[in-house]
Design a protein that fits this description.
- By secondary structure, the chain is an alpha/beta fold.
- The protein is 54% helix and 13% strand.
- It contains 8 helices and 5 strands, in the order E-H-E-H-H-H-E-H-E-H-H-E-H.
- A 5-stranded parallel β-sheet has the order 2-3-1-4-5.
- The chain is globular, with a radius of gyration of 16 Å.
- The relative contact order is 0.20.
- The structure holds shikimate-3-phosphate.
- The site of shikimate-3-phosphate (S3P) has 10 residues, from loops.
Length: 175
């Protein structure tokens, strides 16, 4: 039984590549933000606006706890999930954590048409955006880097990701 957590910054491709990977591995797929939105019947942006970020982080943590009972599942997390509470340690305890490592250019490029659904970024001007992301990448990297597998998010295919998982499985079986 495997449970796989995809972690990394907004726009690193966790959800899109995760969905395809799940299909390829014949695993279930869960997007943590989507689960939370369905559970709360509100969008992430609405939750930030109405309850504030601290409340959102509590809900996100509860959603994460729900995933510990899922089997053979790929879970795409939110960009901030590994950064709060003991979330990263719990994800490592309950599954295999994979960091999709994206540069600022990749993030900016992928997010440019999807800023409205990211409350942390939505209000920033174009000039502020790059600096904000740069700072957050620096702050968050130590948490992301706790993942067992690190992989370059640029042009990442589900096949590549699958191969990395198989290599890791072989290596951990041979210990
Ligand atoms: C956030 C990332 C978002 C979402 C929320 C906060 C963050 O998820 O959870 O807007 O703190 O980086 P994605 O990484 O799926 O965009």
């Amino acid at each position: 039984m495997m449970r796989i957590y995809l972690i990394g910054y907004m726009g690193s491709g966790k959800s899109s590549v995760g969905k395809k990977l799940a299909h390829r591995m014949n695993y279930a797929f869960l997007d943590l933000d989507e689960y939370l939105e369905n559970d709360q019947k509100k969008s992430v942006s609405e939750l930030f606006a109405e309850k504030g970020e601290a409340a959102f982080r509590m809900l996100e943590r509860m959603a994460l706890h729900h995933t510990f009972s899922l089997e053979n599942c790929i879970i795409s997390t939110g960009g901030g999930t590994p950064v709060y509470f003991d979330n990263i340690d719990l994800m490592k305890k309950h599954g295999l954590c994979i960091y999709l490592k994206a540069s600022i250019d990749v993030v900016l490029n992928r997010l440019q048409h999807h800023l409205d659904t990211r409350p942390l970024l939505a209000k920033l001007s174009k000039e502020e955006l790059a600096e904000f992301i740069q700072n957050q990448l620096i702050e968050r990297s130590p948490f992301y880097e706790k993942a067992t597998i690190h992989i370059d998010a640029k042009n990442l295919t589900p096949a590549q990701l699958h191969q990395q998982i198989n290599l890791w499985k072989e290596a951990s079986n041979s210990i």
